[in-house]
Design brief:
The complex is a heterodimer of chains A (about 120) and B (about 110). Chain A is an all-beta fold. Chain A is built from no helices and eleven strands. The termini of chain A are far apart. Chain B is mainly β. Chain B is built from no helices and ten strands. In chain B, the strands form two sheets. In chain B, strands 2, 4, 5, 8, 9 and 10 form a six-stranded mixed β-sheet that branches. Classes of the chains: A mainly beta (about 120), B mainly beta (about 110). At the A-B interface, strand 5 and strand 10 of A face strand 8 and strand 9 of B.
Chain lengths: ~120, ~110
């Protein structure tokens, strides 16, 4: 059974760079796409972007200028970088596997990232 | 691009049936599959319906999904409501460029 475990810094100052990593345990890493989703406190889910096993990426147009998703196939890990964060980037960030027709399952446990001066 | 609109909240009594709608703002709801996720407080989302009406293994058949082209909406129906069903539910689809779109989420209260 596939499990995703994520980690990264939980408290950032404005203008800093958010960095999170997600490790995939069990199942195939190269047969799927991998994605990041965030959820501001009390609000809905927002798709951030995805990466294919080839390394090809696709990002939410609203975040594209600040986002980089990368992968390390040797470690079965993929990562998220979001530059120049502001308090509006405060959210729970989730990693997930992308199955056919953009079905996200399973999800990582989530990381709450707070941006505050 | 398009938006998915859900009611902010719904409530119903245990044992009853509730339906949560997800309306697509432009383009046909039938063009791209819709997924539904359940999210309990403090937890990650989990799938209850994928590809419009498919249930992952382990999800009870009290949960069902459908689409209605006349209202351009997808629906999640939960029958025989239990208090443990209380959660936020999110619909999700994707556009022709494969950009992912989520609805705003619906809080289900079982009282």
């Amino acid at each position: 059974q596939v499990q995703l475990q994520q980690w990264g810094a939980g408290l950032l100052k404005p203008s800093e760079t958010l960095s999170l990593t997600c490790a995939v345990y069990g199942g195939s890493f190269t047969d799927y796409y991998w994605t990041w989703v965030r959820q501001p406190p009390g609000k809905g889910l927002e798709w951030i972007g995805e990466i294919k096993h080839s390394g090809s990426t696709k990002y939410n147009p609203s975040l594209k200028s600040r986002v980089t998703v990368s992968l390390d196939t040797s470690k079965n890990q993929f990562s998220l970088r979001l530059t120049s964060v502001t308090p509006a980037d405060t959210a729970a960030y989730y990693c997930a596997r992308v199955s056919d027709y953009w079905w996200f399952d399973p999800w990582g446990q989530g990381t709450l990232v707070t941006v505050s001066a | 691009n398009f938006m998915l609109t859900q009611p902010p909240s719904v409530s119903e009594s245990p044992g009853k049936t509730v339906t949560i709608s997800c309306t697509r703002s432009s383009g046909s709801i039938a063009t791209n599959y819709v997924q539904w996720y359940q999210q309990r407080p403090g937890s990650s989302p989990t799938t209850v319906i994928y590809e419009d009406n498919q249930r992952p293994s382990g999800v009870p058949d009290r949960f069902s999904g459908s689409i209605d082209s006349s209202s351009n909406s997808a629906s999640l129906t939960i029958s025989g409501l239990k208090t443990e069903d209380e959660a936020d539910f999110h619909c999700q689809s994707y556009d022709t460029d494969n950009n992912v779109v989520f609805g705003g989420g619906t809080k289900l209260t079982v009282l």
